[in-house]
Every structure is written in C-alpha cells, then in structure tokens.
User: What shape does this take?
Amino acid sequence: MDSILVKGNGALNGVIPIAGAKNACLTLMPATLLSDEPLTLTNAPRLSDIRTMTQLLGSLGAEVASLQDGQVLAMSSHAITNHTADYDIVRKMRASILVLGPMLARAGEATVSMPGGCAIGNRPIDLHLKALEAFGAKIELAAGYVKAVQPDGGMPGGDFDFPVVSVGATENALMAAVLANGTSRLFNAAREPEIVDLCNMLVAMGAEIEGIGTSSLIIHGVKRLHGATYRVMPDRIEAGSYACAAAITGGEVRLEGARADEMMATIHALQAIGCDVSWDAKSVTVGASGPLKATNLTTAPYPGLATDMQAQLMALLCKAEGASVLKETIFENRFMHVPELTRMGADITTEGRTAVVKGVSRLTGAEVMATDLRASMSLVIAGLAAEGETTVRRLYHLDRGYERLEEKLQLVGADIERVDD
Ligand code: UD1
Assistant: This one.
C-alpha cells in the first residue's frame, strides 16, 4: 500500500492551482439523472470519489465519459435502466445517497443501500427521507435498503423545515423537488457554496428556484429539465488546506483559482492565527511571516467555519503560541487526528467535542495514519513543520479528496513523496 513521506524543510513558497470542488462535483453529477439530455461538467477534480460516483451512475444506466484527463465529465442519462444503488458501491462513499432524490424524481422510484455510519460519526439519513416524505414520496426500509416511491399521479411537492442543517439532505431534497408537480419550500436549508453551485446548475437546466444562497428555498416544479454545460466551483477546502500548509512553514502561497468570498470563515480563522491573507478575483494568497498565535475556533454550518477545515486548522494551532480551544459542533467524533498529532509531539487534550491545543515549539516526524480524509491532511500539514520524517499511511483517504497532493506541494518546495511499501 502507498504511503506519503514528508520531511519538514522550511518555508513553502509559490503558486498552487486549486481544483474543482469534490463536494460540489459529487452533488452535480447525480443531477444528470434528472434529464434525458447531456450534462457536461468542466473543472472536475481528478479524485477517487469522483470515479466512485461515475461507477454508481453507470450502474443506474447513465453514461459518464471522462475527457481531458478527467477534467471534463460528459454525462448522459437517456434512460434510468436500474433503480437500485447497490451496497457494494454505496459502502465506499456516503455521498452515494445523493442519487436518491434525482432518481426518484425522474424514474418514479429509487432504491438505495443505507450508507451506515462512518469514522467521523453516526451520520444518519433521516432528514433526507423526511424531506422526500414531505414532498409526497412513500418510503420503505428493508434489508439495509431504502426504497422511495412517488405516489400515483406523481410527486405533489411540499414544505420541509430542517430541524438540523444538513448539506446532503438539502441537496437530495432540491433534486427531488425540481421535477415535482407543484411548489416545494425548504426552510433552514443548508446554504454552503456547494448548494448554491447545485442550484445554479439546476437553473441552467431549466429548474425554477427562488432564494438561492439563503436558508429558505422555494422550488417550483417543472415538467422536464434540459441539458447544460457547467463549470464546477473551486474547492474551498483544498484551498484552505494548502493555506494551513503554507502558514505552518512560515511561507507564502498563492492559491490560484480560489474564491475568497466562499471561504471567509477560514480566512478569518487564519487572520486570527496571525497569517497575512490577501485576495483578488482569481486567487487567495496566504502567508505567515511572524509567529502564529493561539485562537478559539468553533465549527458551524455555512457561513460559519467548515467542519472540513477543523483538523487542518488544529494542525496549524499545534505550532501557535499559547492555548487554543477548538469546538466541533457538526460531527460527534471528529477528533481522530488528535492521538496521531500527539504522537508527533503536539499537546492536545479533548473532552467531548472540545479540544484544547497548547502550542509547542517543535513537532517531530512519526509514522501516523488517520481514519478520514481531512484528518489525513492534518497529518501531512504537521509533517511539513516537523523535524525528521513523517510517514502518512492509508493514503486512500487522501486520494478521495486531494488531487495530485504530493505534486502540488512539491511545486511550492515541499520535501514530499509517495512510496509503495
Ligand atoms: C457534507 C460534506 C462533508 C461535510 C458536511 C458538513 C459532501 C459529499 N460531504 O456531508 O464533507 O463535512 O457536509 O459540512 O458534501 N444529519 C442528520 N440526519 C441526516 C443528515 C445529517 O442528523 O439525515 C446530521 C449529521 O449527522 C451531522 C449534521 O447533520 O451531524 C450535518 O451533516 P450533513 O450536512 O448532512 O453532512 P453531509 O451532507 O453528509
């Protein structure tokens, strides 16, 4: 199995190109099931999660051609020939649940394996199902699968007020509502930039959605959607991760393609830690010329600080002067990187969903592994500032979400390589 070897070797400086957003692409792709006309995505990231979604859509009867070295996905879904998303694919990637809404809307029924728990928490799908029920769908659970069926005469649409903000449930609900017979209203909907990207693409396909970018969405169902060509938004989490990498080494990188307005909470966190951040319409530049300072951070739904940035910012805070308090409010078990960072010399204690990080003057290389994507990235970030060599194992997590990770870090001077051991 491959590992990443990383050695701290001073400041990272230069330019890193930011890829299309994994989480946006994973919700834009299933929208191909909504139309019998071609849907083309440009600026797609080259990631294993995207290949898993390609495989899943293929199993349902869609055609997905990966062009221009994977940066263009030409999709078409003339007919949905199979209405079941199998456990074998769904267990690999939770985002597979995002085929439920569009398949139900277009084919009248959809059966999807329940994704089950994952390393960062229980992660139920009850809100996905309740939203579909509110639109008139009938839901049955049997043998580990959820089956959703439209009522006779089609889905009327309806109102749903999310008791908890959920990105995935909002996306599934949106894709189910766009082809309903009537109007649907979503309250307390997630308003992450990836949701705005989905809404904008659905509108480009002929959907009628009001309130885009707010927590109240009104969706007027239309009879059919047409094809479109759409550019995937830049990955704000990839950009934030490389910002932490540059800052922990005392360097400066320009994140080419990143959009500041979509990552303001991360920018504010970096500024509170003492980083210099500047931006223009096409890039964000992050540097750290002075000492890093402790600060208190709490994750929250957008526009709050993304839970997907918590582990990387924690790695950065390990080298800050003073004690920081980090609160994770979205997932119940998202501190698995703590014991690994501790093995590298970090001083972190946790109690429930709160971590206290006391900055240390030196981190030391170690063999580490993490159980999720962003946690793995936090170990790479710590490794870039550690004395000696860090070996990060279980690379399949990183390959799910970071395109050409070692190449991009080498571009700015990192001593990092992938080895087969
Ligand atoms: C998405 C992102 C993930 C990110 C997360 C939060 C993708 C592919 N993944 O995950 O990277 O960390 O948003 O920003 O876009 N919940 C329920 N019932 C549900 C659904 C969710 O209780 O039916 C809870 C979850 O357990 C969690 C919270 O709601 O505590 C937020 O989860 P959610 O926003 O749904 O995350 P995902 O869409 O799975």
Summary: The pocket of uridine-diphosphate-N-acetylglucosamine is lined by residues 23, 26, 94-95, 121, 123-128, 164, 166-169, 306-308, 330-331 (CB under 6 Å). The two ends are 6 Å apart (CA to CA).
